[in-house]
Amino acid sequence: MVDEDQRRTQISADWVLKRIQGGKRVRLNNAVVVGDLELCRLNLPKRHVGRTEIQKQLGLKENIIIVRSAISITNSTIQGRLNFSDSVFINNNGIWFSGTTFINSAWFDGAFFDNGGFFERAIFSSGAGFNHATFSFNAEFAGATFCKVARFIYASFDAIANFPGVRFNTVPGFTGATFKRDAWFNGTTFSDDAWFGISNFKEAAEFYGVNFNGDASFDKAIFDGIAEFYGAAFSKSVDFQGAEFKGDFVTFRDALFKDAKSQEEACRRAKNVLERNGNRDEAGYYFYREMEAKRKQNGIVLPIDFTRLSLADIYRLIKYNLFEYLLFQNLFGGYDVYPFWIIIWWLVVAFGFALFYWYFQGIEGASCLSQCINFSFLVAFTRGFGEFGPKQGFFEMAIETEIVFGLIMFGAFIASITSVSSGL
């Protein structure tokens, strides 16, 4: 970084501040800004804004600095501190820091971005604060990296909040943030915990393919529009306690949950929303995943240390890891959600019996595999023998077993069809 910076044009922070003081345009690209950029050092006009009691207690000022200069510092390095807090940027072009690296802290607390803030691919090497900031136009952070503090607590995004591909290497705080338009976090990586408690998503909240490597909190968050977590990966717990999904669609399709309790809660909430809006097929998928999560919580966590299993553990292992997993989650149609699974397993097992009869020549009059398959399918689906019959002894017991299996699968199929037809 040092060698690269030496090849760039070095600009004094005082030169930048002097141009802002004079209302002149600041346009830098591939430069190094040396020194601190602090607007509080300038004698600029101010505007009075109302602050809440909480904002006053946090030290946010009611008389904020008016910045008329168009500021664009892109693909550059700012070596000193940057403090643009308690300011309003009213130029028509927004404020641009695309591709810029902030070596020290960058604070925009309580700032008003009247025409947007553009921070695509920016690198915040130290603390970055946008607490109680207001973005009246788009907030663009695509591909940005936050190495340390990243705070957007009670920030207001009046237009698109664009955070795709962002990497948060520390705990980002979006607690109490308001997203009045779409919020896009697709492909974002949260290396630590992620806080979205009591935030409000007025329109679409998109978290496609997001990696939550720490705990994720959406406690008491409100989703007025669609909420999409398609393909998201939750490496630890995710908390939707008290969250409200008021929109007509929620998806956790192909999402990965490390914590079974989190999977149960998320899928139950998605199921309830989809049932409420008449989307029964999709609701069935989440009912299946909800039941799967309950089974995992009751069973033994894999991998299993067989040397330390108690009798109670062995009981749980047999009941939930084996019996419920094989029968109810798979063989019997995925908790009555997928009737066609029953048909598939029915056919597979009947074919397995046919192979057994053919290999050991256990059927009278059946000289080839196709005849054994015909016989086995008759037994499994109709309990009839047709023109064939089993040889005496062990093969008679096999036939009886297949008949019982066919009766069980028929009952499971009818129950599954009835459940799907009447709703979960």
Structural class: alpha/beta
Indicate the overall shape.
elongated
Beta-strand share of residues: 15-25%
Note the gap between the termini: 59 Å
What is the helix content? 25-40%
Counting DSSP E segments of at least 2 residues, the number of strands comes to: 42
- The helix tally amounts to 10
Radius of gyration: 31 Å
Overall residue-averaged pLDDT value:
90
Give the uncertain stretches in residue-range form. none
The major β-sheet equals: 11 strands, parallel
Number of spatially distinct domains: 3
Strand order of the largest sheet: 1-3-8-12-16-20-24-28-32-36-40
Q: How is this structure best described in words?
A:
α5 packs antiparallel against α6 (311-331), α8 (339-360) packs across α9 and α8 packs antiparallel against α10. The chain is elongated, with a radius of gyration of 31 Å. The model has no long low-confidence stretch (mean pLDDT 90). It folds into 3 domains: 2-298, no CATH class; 306-331, no CATH class; 336-422. 34% of the residues lie in helices and 23% in strands. The chain is built from 10 helices and 42 strands. The strands form 6 sheets. The protein has an 11-stranded parallel beta sheet with strand order 1-3-8-12-16-20-24-28-32-36-40. The relative contact order is 0.05. With 424 residues, the chain is of the alpha/beta class.
What's the topology here?
Blueprint: H1 2-7, E1 9-12, H2 13-21, E2 26-29, E3 31-34, E4 37-38, E5 46-48, H3 53-57, E6 63-67, E7 71-74, E8 77-78, E9 82-83, E10 87-89, E11 95-96, E12 101-102, E13 106-107, E14 112-113, E15 117-118, E16 123-124, E17 128-129, E18 134-135, E19 139-140, E20 145-146, E21 150-151, E22 156-157, E23 161-162, E24 167-168, E25 172-173, E26 178-179, E27 183-184, E28 189-190, E29 194-195, E30 200-201, E31 205-206, E32 211-212, E33 216-217, E34 222-223, E35 227-228, E36 233-234, E37 238-239, E38 244-245, E39 250-251, E40 256-257, H4 260-276, H5 280-298, H6 311-331, H7 333-336, H8 339-360, E41 363-364, H9 369-382, E42 389-390, H10 394-422
Parallel strand pairs: 1-3, 2-7, 3-8, 4-9, 6-10, 7-11, 8-12, 9-13, 10-14, 11-15, 12-16, 13-17, 14-18, 15-19, 16-20, 17-21, 18-22, 19-23, 20-24, 21-25, 22-26, 23-27, 24-28, 26-30, 27-31, 28-32, 29-33, 30-34, 31-35, 32-36, 33-37, 34-38, 35-39, 36-40
Antiparallel strand pairs: 5-6, 41-42
